[in-house]
Amino acid sequence: MKILVTGGLGFIGSHTVVELQNKGFEVVIVDNCSNSSESVLDGITKISGKKPLFEKLDLREKEKVSSFFKKYQDIAGVIHFAASKAVGESVEKPLLYYENNIGTLVYILQELSKKQKASFIFSSSCTVYGQADKMPITEDAPVKVAESPYGNTKQMGEEIIADTCKVTPELSAIALRYFNPMGSHPSAEIGELPIGVPQNLVPFITQTGIGMRKELSVFGDDYPTPDGTCIRDYIYVVDLAKAHVVALERLLAGKNKENYEVFNVGTGKGSSVLEAIHSFEKVSGKKLNYKIVDRRPGDITSAYADTTKANTVLGWKSEYTLDDAMKSAWVWEQKIRD
Ligand code: UD1
């Protein structure tokens, strides 16, 4: 079966393409390479022994999206990763984020709505919960007012899909709300490639470990948590990639109970920033240079998933621990700087 993976050269997209190909799916990647490189195709091909089809395309070009779906009429499902994801940049350039994350979603859904049957997986985020009132966070926790245009695009994206599914029985969709993805493929052929100074914790840790950054700033140690630093649910990217495959298989097999469903994808375990640092020190055998600084505006204290729904309904469970995932991130960092 042919599956379109938009943003398939990106961090989570590329790992998902590998898992899809491992399961025998035929993959077509669409990517505009704005935050990725065509060389990722080689990594994917080395791991899975199969080169996916690739179309360099900017999904904001509506006519080209239409032509793409005319060319590939046999696409049975879409996993939609292509989007911008930097919170700070989204505050500076809100319209870019709305065009990139919402415009492209609308164009794809318009094309899928013309089909007799289509399955759609959406990259959502735990950011929709904001600071949830209860931990761990279940899928029925209220969606809070978004802190940034980026967060808003994830909330609006979910609503657009839900509204479309209500009037389009031929379309089935699942939104996966990721917690904090990290790590790289065990082969170290693909991994996270942040452009410029990383905003996320794990690549900043590994870049500090390798000496590219002088020190890591820990944003606040006065939070109401056991060690005072923020708590997140760090999910290994290969585990996350596998969640996309099982979600897609659920839709393709018609096993979904409703035509729009939402699942948390995390480990269910919260780890603090200091615990993440200690994990790095343990797996790398290196001391990490870090200092405590002020809180980062907009950060929430704590977020970790209740994964019961994904475990029971999807039959998916994360396998890697924080140490395993950190080790993979470190191996990758060493390889790309070599
Ligand atoms: C961030 C985004 C979130 C997005 C996710 C994608 C914000 C406020 N949220 O989540 O919307 O879905 O990335 O991966 O940007 N930290 C440090 N020092 C650093 C970097 C991070 O102490 O140099 C801390 C942060 O304060 C936080 C934790 O590490 O407590 C994780 O930060 P990060 O990796 O940026 O992820 P989130 O903020 O959870």
How much of the residues is beta strand, in percent? 15-25%
CATH class of the largest domain: Alpha Beta
The CA-CA distance between the termini, in Å, is 38 Å
What gross morphology would you assign? globular
| Overall average pLDDT | 97
- Poorly predicted runs are none
> Order of strands across the biggest sheet?
3-2-1-4-5-6-11
What is the CATH fold-level name of the largest domain?
Rossmann fold
**Fraction of residues in helix:** 40-55%
Distinctive features:
338 residues, alpha/beta, Rossmann fold, UDP-galactose 4-epimerase, domain 1, 2 domains, seven-stranded parallel sheet, 11 helices, 41% helix, binds uridine-diphosphate-N-acetylglucosamine
Description:
It is globular, with a radius of gyration of 19 Å. The protein is an alpha/beta fold and 338 residues long. The strands form 4 sheets. The chain has a 7-stranded parallel sheet with strand order 3-2-1-4-5-6-11, with helices on both faces. The chain has a two-stranded parallel ribbon with strand order 7-10. The model has no long low-confidence stretch (mean pLDDT 97). 41% of the residues lie in helices and 18% in strands. Helix 1 packs across helix 8, helix 7 crosses helix 11 and helix 9 packs across helix 11 (322-337). The chain contains 11 helices and 13 strands. It has 2 domains: 2-182 and 235-265, NAD(P)-binding Rossmann-like Domain (Rossmann fold); 201-232 and 268-337, UDP-galactose 4-epimerase, domain 1, CATH 3.90.25.10. It has helices at 11-22, 40-48, 62-71, 87-92, 94-113, 149-167, 201-210, 237-252, 273-284, 308-314, 322-337, and strands spanning 2-6, 26-31, 53-56, 75-80, 118-125, 171-178, 180-182, 216-219, 231-232, 234-236, 260-265, 271-272, 290-293. The longest helix has 20 residues, at 94-113.
